[in-house]
Amino acid sequence: MQEKLSIHGSWTNRWVFILAATGSAVGLGNIWKFPYITGENGGGAFVLVYLLCILLVGVPIMISEVLVGRRGRMSPINSMIETAKESGLSRRWGLVGWLGALAGFMIFSFYSVVAGWVLYYIAAMANGDFVDAGKAQVGATFENLLADPETMLIWHSVFVVLVMAVLVGGVNKGLERASRILMPALFLLLLLLLGYSFTTGHFMEGVTFLFHFSPDELSWEAVLTALGHSFFTLSLGIGAMIAYGAYMPKKASIGGTVLIIAVLDTLVALVAGMAIFPIVFANQLSAEAGPGLMFITLPVAFGQMAGGQVFGFLFFVLVGVAAWTSAISLMEPSIAWVVERFKVHRLIACTGLGLLGWGLGLLSIGSFNVLSDYTLLGMGVFDLLDFATANIMLPLGGLLVSIYVGWWMKRPALENELAIRNPFWFNAWYLAIRFIAPTAVAAIFALNLYNKLA
Ligand code: PFF
Ligand code: NA
């Protein structure tokens, strides 16, 4: 029987899929968000809970998403519909795909604003702006950037164009080519920075901070954050992995491949932490710096160190590359859907959706300055989009996928697609996706909403 393939193309081999999916997973979540939420939540105990969430919830759900994509061979929306039809279910499961595409779109709009700051910092680092700059000066630079909609707009636009330029090329000439070049560059930069942080003489302090275990510092809030972040960091709940799975060769094993991606994403987060905290501690700065860790604390640290200008520059290039390969995967689900639905060329789909995402980003930009008075539940547009996606839409998307795959899709279809020879591993996955993942997500999801709204 001829293997059914996606009309959008297929990855040349399994390794390209790993590179592209790791490119999606490794992003601002690993290098910007993970270190600062770890700092805010006291370090070691939080990291442990985070690792458990990845293993028990994240990996099983990622396997399910890739499975749905490879079986459906279409955009997430249509892959949900195709696999639902195969199992004799309602087309309404396509709504899960819609929820994801919408979330991807929303994340894209504020993700590219932050990525815009990163581009601005690449330029500033190259320029030597932070050499010997104190905390007050870097803080003022960051505040001035946030207060200046025009500068933010320029860099946000540059980033959107970079992302769309790759997406226009399609699966092989765009996504695949970008992954083959950017991912090795990313790993190389990360190793260089790790080496640099070894030279600070504070390396063990950083490691201790990440791995010391003090359970009393663990709050419910931290558990919520860890679970939400495990979704965000693995690009789950929005259909990105369904989209990338649709282009995956049939003979590659899904379970083993997903495990590699999850391990790489986790390693990058930990290595980023090990690279960042020693640099912070070496300069008598504090780890609990919140979102400003990357944009204030780190530049101050780099500015005081020998070689800091070069390595600071390389650091922000690393972050920019990571954000780039992630942002691509945020938009691929909706672009693939538009191409399928309207039978238009990718160029048209990319231009249309790119403009929409760019436009929504303007609201995020404004929330730091001209629109700062418009808030809901105490949050401006930027925080609202972040909150609504990371804390509501992604967990909800993941919950629905786990219920769909675990309780509704026919088991023979799952067995056929996963092709796991050892029944133990299939059963372990099936147990996780039917019971552990939905229970954990539902419980934590409910608690989270209760905490936030009560
Ligand atoms: N996984 C990315 C990160 O850790 O930065 C964020 C992300 C990318 C989430 C793509 C969702 C997605 F579809
Ligand atoms: Na990530």
From TrEMBL:
The keyword Ribosomal protein appears for this protein: no
Bilayer topology term: Multi-pass membrane protein
Keywords for this protein: Membrane, Symport, Transmembrane, Transmembrane helix, Transport
Localisation: Membrane
PROSITE patterns from the UniProt entry: NA_NEUROTRAN_SYMP_1, NA_NEUROTRAN_SYMP_3
Chain ranges passing through the membrane: 12-32, 44-68, 95-122, 152-169, 181-203, 223-246, 258-281, 301-326, 347-368, 388-407, 428-450
SUPFAM superfamilies registered for this protein in UniProt: SNF-like (SSF161070)
Family annotation (CDD domains): SLC6sbd_Tyt1-Like
Record PANTHER family: TRANSPORTER
NCBIfam families: Na_transp (NF037979)
Similarity comment: Belongs to the sodium:neurotransmitter symporter (SNF) (TC 2.A.22) family.
Name of the featured protein: Transporter
Lineage: Bacteria, Pseudomonadati, Pseudomonadota, Gammaproteobacteria, Oceanospirillales
